[in-house]
Amino acid sequence: MSVNITIFKIYPIDQPGLASYSTPMIDKRVDNIAAALGDIQSGAVILSSGFGDAGAPVDLLEALINTGAENLTIVSNNAGEGNYGLAALIAAGKVSQIICSYPISAGSVVFQDRYQAGEVALEVVPQGTLSERMRAAGAGIGGFFTPTSAGTELGKSKENREINGVEHVLEYPLKGDVALIRATQADRWGNIVYDKSARNFGPVMAMAATLTIVQVDEIVELGELDPELIITPGIFVDRVFVHND
Amino acid sequence: MTAVLEKIGLTRPQVAWRIAQEIDDGSYVNLGIGSPEMVANYVPADREIVFHSENGILGMGEAPAAGQEDGNLINAGKKPVTLLPGGSYFSHTDSFVMIRGGHIDICVLGAYQVAENGDLANWATLDTSKPPGVGGAMDLAVGAKQIFVMMDHCTKTGKPKLMQNCTYPLTGFGVVRTVFTDLAVIDVTEGGFVAREITAGISFEELQEKTAAPLTLAENWQTLTPPEL
Fold first, then answer.
1. SS3 assignment, position A164
2. Cβ contact (<8 Å) for B131 and A111?
């Protein structure tokens, strides 16, 4: 098989699931943000990577503003800071619900205003439960019991079970229609590596969404990433593109 | 004649110093956001302690020198940190496997209130006008092998924070092992609060007055006299 790795392909955006299989060569590279985001639908559940600013897909979130997609549910650890990235998407009125662990960072002013105005709904999930619910979605697990939040305000409406003498709550998977992820390097198969603690939610979100879109600084040739050190294998990734902030 | 105001009780760095003395060599330790972060500054020189950060770091080091900050290398409070030799990065899922799976030896958390049975209230106030946020507090409360609390003994308005029952929303039930305040080191036992150390200049009676649950004085209790910090 001859492999031409110098050509960047753009697949028809109305058939993203078929793109990787429409030629004998797996190539998940797309040209730019517009090609990456064009088919995101209104009402989508979007997993957005990052812990604070580290690993947040700021450019992808801002580009979503002009795609026409509205009524979005955003799943992320935080609720945006300042007036960029997620905060800009919220300010543009595109977000109807946020599922996160900690929306009360000092700079989360846009979210807090919209929340208090009743324009954005909020589901607060303990951070480890948030991560594990996405892992369950990615792993095909129907639910799990955890002691985290049992007996508290956050656990009161959930099914309880005592396991080995400890109260647990039943948690369900949290699946995304789309994952938006910021990473460092990719290859055309969609193998991904990250930078330091910016890795955070990237790997679990990549496996928990139907369509996973990754923005990187650099796309390297197949085989260049050390297979022992690839963090997110390409099986979990659908589109990669280079965009430097 | 000017009145001389004497500061009674430990400073925050002194409380952090006291907690650091309590951490065994070889421990894996998670430090909560805020004052608990100071504990890392006072680890005794003869101990190797590995600090864990919930956002995916083991072997977290101190703050970088000015100009050396890296926005992709931050702690749970989103402040710049460094990585020590032997340190590692991992995903959030793996990080919370460490927390929820009982692999963290000690977690030091701040608190609004602690009850005499070890109940912990540190995630929400009674003010419902603002959105709630829990972060990793509930995961740490149930997952770490031991929970230490670092807090002022009373609120800014002088109200006790060590209670018979917490009035603030609970984070975890019966999870607190020891409370380190500006006035005392207090263990949570089956018989309630036991004062193990009392800061120099404070009497047991004064300590009891500032505590909203019965206190027992440990048989071998000591006066806590920290270094100047």
1. coil
2. yes
Show residues of chain A in contact with B99, CB under 8 Å.
Answer: 128
Provide the edge-to-edge strand list for the sheet that holds B162-163: B120-121, B113-115, B162-163
Tokens standing for residue B15? 């409380």
Pick the CATH number of B12-224 from 3.40.50.970, 3.20.20.60, 3.40.30.10, 3.40.1080.10: 3.40.1080.10
Q: Break chain A into its structural domains and give their ranges.
A: 42-124+175-240
Q: In this predicted structure, which of A101-115, B5-19, B81-95, B108-122 has the lowest mean pLDDT? A: B5-19
pLDDT at A8 over 60: no
> pLDDT per residue over B65-104, tens digit each?
999 999 999 999 999 999 999 999 999 999 999 999 999 9
Residue A137 C-alpha, separation from nearest chain B C-alpha, in angstroms: 13
Asked if residues A179 and A213 have their Cβ atoms less than 8 Å apart, the reply is yes
Give the tens place of pLDDT for each residue, B22-75: 999 999 999 999 999 999 999 999 999 999 999 999 999 999 999 999 999 999
Q: Determine contact, residues B194/B214, Cβ cutoff 8 Å.
A: no
Return mean pLDDT, chain B. Answer: 95
Q: Would the CB atoms of B139 and A116 count as touching at under 8 Å?
A: no
Q: Distance, in angstroms, between B217 CA and closest chain A CA?
A: 31
CATH placement of domain A42-124+175-240: 3.40.1080.10
Q: Which of residues 141-180 of B touch A (CB under 8 A)?
A: 141-143, 169-173
Q: Could you confirm whether B116 is annotated as catalytic?
A: no
Q: Under an 8 A CB cutoff, do A122 and B90 touch?
A: no
Beta bridge partners, B113, equal B121
Task: Give this complex's ipTM.
Answer: 0.87
Minimal Cα–Cα distance from B164 to chain A, Å?
Answer: 18
Radius of gyration in angstroms for the set of CA atoms belonging to chain A, rounded to a whole number: 19
Any chain A CB within 8 A of the CB of B122?
no
**CA torsion sign, B194 to B200 to B205 to B206?**
negative
Any residues with CB less than 8 A from the CB of A6 and at least 6 apart, and which? none
Residues of chain A neighbouring B83 (CB-CB closer than 8 A): 196
Task: Check residue A81 and give its pLDDT.
Answer: 94
